[in-house]
Structures are given as structure tokens and as C-alpha cells.
Amino acid sequence: MRDLEANGCAALSYRLTGADPLERLCDKHLSARLRVIVAFESQETAWLLLVADHDDSDPDFNIYAELYRLVGHEPEPSEKRTKPPCCDEEGAAPAFGRAAEDLALKATELRRTRR
Fold first, then answer.
1. Which of 9, 54, 84, 115 is the most buried (most CB within 10 A)?
2. Measured CA angle at 20 (ends 62, 14), to 5 deg
């Protein structure tokens, strides 16, 4: 959180690959299998959408399976995952306005219904 607050998009590892909104979301490996997915509303506001393990053996505990449920689609299997930097060439975050907050609210609701 402190790194994100101090460094913005530069604190995150890479942008995800796939159709919108996936291509506007950033990922960071926190430790071992623990990941965080972040959406930027603006250059000053970021939403932590998901924090969970990347565990391919259990889709209920796999952050990417949860993310794909959240956005309503998965990347195409043939789509090459390039993992570009979170920030663009000018150092700007991939912000997409109010849709970032909407995703955060949807993530909260999805989490409540899965308990």
C-alpha cells in the first residue's frame, strides 16, 4: 500500500493481457503465490480489486479465476500474454475513470455472495 501510494503505477509489476478491462488492470506478486490486482480510476486514485493466491489447483482460491468471474470473461487461450509494464511510456497509469470504482464495488459484492 505504501509503495503504491508513493510510486503509483510504478509500484506494480505489469498490466494484464486481454480485452478491456483486463488490459487496464495491473498485477503485483506480493509473496509466494499471493497477488494483488489494481484498477486505476485516475493518476491519483487506485482501487485494490483482489488480493488472493494464484492457485491453479483450486479455482475458488485462484485470483485469476476470481478476476475473470469479476469481469465476465477470460483472455482467449491463444492470446499471447505479454505482461507490459503497468505504467505507459510517459509513466502514466492505465486509468479508466469511474469504471474502476464500479469494478471495486462489483468485486466486493462478488466476494459477499461467495461466502
1. 9
2. 60
**CA 41 to chain CA centroid, nearest Å:** 12
Judge contact between 104 and 47, C-beta under 8 A: yes
Cβ atoms of 41 and 47 closer than 8 Å: yes
Residue 47 CA, chain-centre distance (Å), reads 9
- pTM of the entire structure? 0.90
Q: Is the pLDDT of residue 111 over 80?
A: no
User: Collapsing DSSP states into helix, strand and coil, what is residue 62?
Assistant: coil
**Hey, what amino acid is at 50?**
L
Residue 92 belongs to what domain range? Answer: 2-113
Give burial (CB, 10 Å; 0-12/13-18/19+) of 30. exposed
pLDDT digits (tens, 9 = 90+) for 66-109: 999 999 988 877 778 889 999 999 999 999 999 999 999 999 98
Q: Are the CB atoms for 86 and 93 separated by under 8 Å?
A: yes
- Chain position carrying cell 508513493: 6
Query: How many angstroms separate the CA atoms of 44 and 18, rounded?
Result: 24
